Structure formats: structure tokens, C-alpha cells
Amino acid sequence: MKNVVILDHPLVSHKITLLRDKNTNSKQFRELVEEISMLITYESLRNLPTEEIEVETPICKTRSKVIAGKDIAIVPILRAGLGMTSGILALLPTAKVGHIGLYRDHETLEPHEYYCKLPEDIAERDVILLDPMLATGGSASAAVNFLKQRGVQHIKLMSILAAPEGIERVTREHPDLLVYVACVDEKLNEHGYIVPGLGDAGDRLFGTK
């Protein structure tokens, strides 16, 4: 799939299996989401530009690489996207964080915005959009639209689980979007949930069901 990177790593597969288990409690679930998010981030930032600077080690002066280029912003889609944020901030502690609040109509399965708060300089940043469950793709696609309307030009979408239908929609509606996902599942059911999936990520993260 063009512009879609699917992680294929035993460590990721192991952690996703634990996420799926209905007996995994909220504390364990949050920790696993953070860990998987860090692993996806590692892969998604593989091509970050670098530049050499001079540093002095305890032995001598040398030239060594640091990250160059634009600053990064992290934008979780509320509420489940919040579970991915701290894992990514552990790797990118200087990134700014915005929030986009969307809810899905249970009849039409289409997203509706109820909150959007982004850094003032969002148009000057590379944005990592966080949506742990890419199901229908409606929420992610709408969030990408909101970011583009505010001048963002470089967006990466990071998800933990995706359905083929969600990937097809976001890549069709946003062919310039880069998508990084830990695992692609079989399909959506009649209620728009990923099968086999892991249930409602927000409820499992925050213990609300």
C-alpha cells in the first residue's frame, strides 16, 4: 500500500496480543499503548534530517549528528489518542502538543468536531497525528482536513490497529498522507468496530467501561 508502513516486528506483535486480551487491565493497557507508540515513533522518524555539530567528549573534540529541520507537533485525536502521547513525548520531549476532539455518530459512523486547540505555529511544524484505532477512517480523515485548513503541509498518521477500510479511506482522501500502523486487522463489523480488534481503546485506557 502506497504511503503506508506496517510494522513487522516480534516485539510489536507480542505487545499487541497482550492489548487484545480482554483480561488486560487499564494500567497494563496504558503501558502497552505507550510502549507500542514509542516503537512506531522510532520507525516513523527513521528519515529525519540531521546535521553535524562539534562536541567535546571527555577524550577529545569531534563532530556528531543532531536532528535538523522543522520542529514537530503531536496532535492526538481525543480521547483515545491521549494514550499514545506520553510514549512519543518520551522520545520527543520538546514537541508541542495540540488536541482535536471528535466524536462518531453511532448511526452514520461519521465524525463531528467538538474541540480543536493547536499550537499557534502549527503551520510551521511537521505534525504527527495520533489515532490508535483506524477503523472507518472518518475521524482521522477529518482531523487531517482540520490540520490542512490551518496550513499544515507535512502530516504523519500513527495508529496501533487499522482496518483495511480505514486505510483505504484516508489514503484515498489524502494521497499525500504518510500512515504508520502497528497491525492491520481483518475487517470492520456492522457497528464499525475493528475485527478482531481490541474493543474500545478509550474505554480500556481510562477504565470507563
Domain count: 1
Q: What's the CATH architecture name? A: 3-Layer(aba) Sandwich
H and E order: EHHEEEHEEEEEHEHEEEH
CATH topology: Rossmann fold
How would you characterize the largest beta sheet? 9 strands, mixed
Which of globular, elongated, flat, extended, rod-shaped describes the shape? Answer: globular
The count of helical stretches stands at 6
Task: Give the helix/strand layout.
Elements: E1 4-6, H1 10-20, H2 26-44, E2 50-56, E3 61-67, E4 72-78, H3 82-91, E5 96-97, E6 99-104, E7 111-117, E8 126-130, E9 133-134, H4 138-149, E10 155-162, H5 164-173, E11 178-184, E12 187-188, E13 194-195, H6 201-206
Parallel strand pairs: 1-11, 4-5, 4-6, 4-8, 8-10, 9-10, 10-11
Antiparallel strand pairs: 2-3, 6-7, 12-13
Helix pairs in contact: 1-2, 2-3
Give your account of this protein's structure.
- By secondary structure, this protein is α/β, with parallel strands linked by helices.
- It has one domain: Rossmann fold (3-Layer(aba) Sandwich), CATH 3.40.50.
- Helix content is 33%, strand content 31%.
- It contains 6 helices and 13 strands.
- The strands form 3 sheets. Strands 1, 4, 5, 6, 7, 8, 9, 10 and 11 form a 9-stranded mixed beta sheet that branches. A two-stranded antiparallel ribbon has the order 2-3. Strands 12-13 form a two-stranded antiparallel ribbon.
- The longest helix is centred in the N-terminal third of the chain and has 19 residues, at 26-44.
- It is globular.
- The two termini are 35 Å apart.
